[in-house]
Amino acid sequence: MRIFSRRQTTSSAAQNPLVPVLLALSSQGKQALYAATNNGSLKRGTWNGCALNAAGRVVGERITDSARAARVFETTPQIMRDFIVVWDRLRGPDHRCTALLREAILTVGLFTEPDGRVVATEPHRTATAEVGG
Fold it and tell me: Does residue 38 carry a pLDDT above 80?
């Protein structure tokens, strides 16, 4: 049995390439992405089943491009494009990349805004929502 120290955990989080792009995302966006990660593996390299598309379904929105994602998650199209570039370039199977996304969201915080403010103490409805078929 291998014991992981706090230092190893922190180092692993720092190496997660999704952490920097998620820092710029709204708390609503992070909560929707987190909920989407809890509903199975997300895909890369396609809009059908991708992280942003699945997060949009969590909040009842259809996301088909970065501009629409930016409107839904209260950010800029450039931030959405930055996320997409990092997400699509991750290596490994979809289930591993989905787990990396979940870990990165928890690292940056579900309730933090890009300016560092904490906006809620209870999860937004998107953090616990079920994704419908």
Answer: yes
Give CA–CA dist 86/101, Å, rounded: 11
Q: Which of 122, 130, 131, 30 is nearest to 75 (CA)?
A: 30
The whole-number pLDDT of residue 5 equals 31
Residue 1 has pLDDT above 70, yes or no: no
The DSSP-derived string for 13-37 is: HHT-THHHHHHTS-HHHHHHHHHHH
Could you give the CA distance from residue 109 to residue 129 in angstroms, rounded to a whole number? 18
Instruction: DSSP for 48-113, please give it.
Output: TTBHHHHHHHHTT----SHHHHHHHTTS-HHHHHHHHHHHHH--S-HHHHHHHHHHHHHHH-TTB-
17 close to 109: Cβ distance less than 8 angstroms:
no
Domains held by the chain: number: 1
pTM of the model: 0.80
Q: Is residue 10 situated within a structural domain?
A: no
Q: Confirm whether 97 is domain-assigned.
A: yes
